[in-house]
Amino acid sequence: MRRILTAAAALVLLLTGCTAGDEGPDDGVVRLRFQSLAWQKESVDANRQLVDEWNATHPRVQIDYVQGSWDSVHDQLLTSFEGGEAPDLIHDASDDLADFAYGGHLADLRPLLPERLRADIPARSWETTTFGSDKGVYGVPFLQEPRVIIANRKILESSGVRVPTPEKPWSWTEFRQIAQDLTRSMGPGRYAVAWPLKEPVSVSLNLGLSAGGRLFHREADGRVTVRFTEADAVVPGTIHDLVVTDRTAPRTTLGSGGSDTLPGFFAGKYAMVPLGFAYRQQIAQQAPEGFEWTVLPAPAGDAGLTQGVSPQTLSIAEDSPYKKEAAEFLDFFLRPENMVRLARGDWMLPTGTKALADPSLHTAEDGWATGAAVAQRLRPAPAQSVRGYPEWKDKVATPAFQEYYSGAIDAGELRRRLVEDGNRVLARYQRK
Q: Mind telling me which PANTHER family this protein's record contains (predicted)?
């Protein structure tokens, strides 16, 4: 009986939480629910402070902050859209928007956003939230996170290897040679680089742009197909060779998340770890006293430092009765000075040109300047507008890349799975 009562109470709380934003007191105040996915303390604090500042100066339009989770956001949003209980303002990532945009769940923001905001964010960033033949815009891209290499400064300097800069990065071929030199200098049981590839698809595709890889190709009729070319093979092939052929990267970290590699990194077991830019916060907070680290750009290919990115986004639900008020809040929330606060709170980079030019994002401390330099070369992730990408990623690409990187399958089998199995998945989403 106790379990039944607890479950019933939880259900009541869930239902009231879903509807509180729509059923406030009849006092003429517009109440909008803003579901944020901020999770680090600094980021949550920045988001809540901005909501409080808005509420203090806009008594007729109040924002209710709702805490969401990156771990479950896609399924949670899908359920809330189908049930008519979606938040008015939605925090997500651009590579999660395609199915919601095509499904009619998100508002086209073109008639809602002020020119100031539209002009401040570069066209390449707007491409990440633009879908359909009519080029509708279904989210505001506001934070972006390049991939960088976090390195043990003392190991690099003592080895004598060339340290890369954004102006003179390593090539992928040089990166492999550097890894061999570092591993030899470090001694038994230690490795030049640890690849945390629990989620291998975005890493492989986004870094693959540096070598000219695209993987997804849109045909004249609008359909998307997968083709795995020599350019697409450069980055996956390098990672495979580091692990399987050269043994300069351990197999044991392939199934790990980024945070899982940090204890070994701090202990000197790995000289370098490729990570998202935001991991600098954990390193700054958790590194032992005296540990010296530096931020390096990811290796460059034929396309230089170009890499794909799926920015964090803010959208408005199509079913929201207060789209105009929601857009006004977005305009406030994403003013340049506020975008800087959000970026620093998340240890990421803003998409807005005025915010990105802020001096605080160009300091050498904690590698901000390296990230800001790489930000100029960020482009939409290859899968941004591909319908069916989540299923392709989960059912086809993730297991294929995991097995390839561990040495369980060869490059030919990786290509077959990504192309043949992958195109069968995508075809179901593109039937007319």
A: ABC TRANSPORTER SUBSTRATE-BINDING PROTEIN (PTHR43649:SF30), ARABINOSE-BINDING PROTEIN-RELATED (PTHR43649)
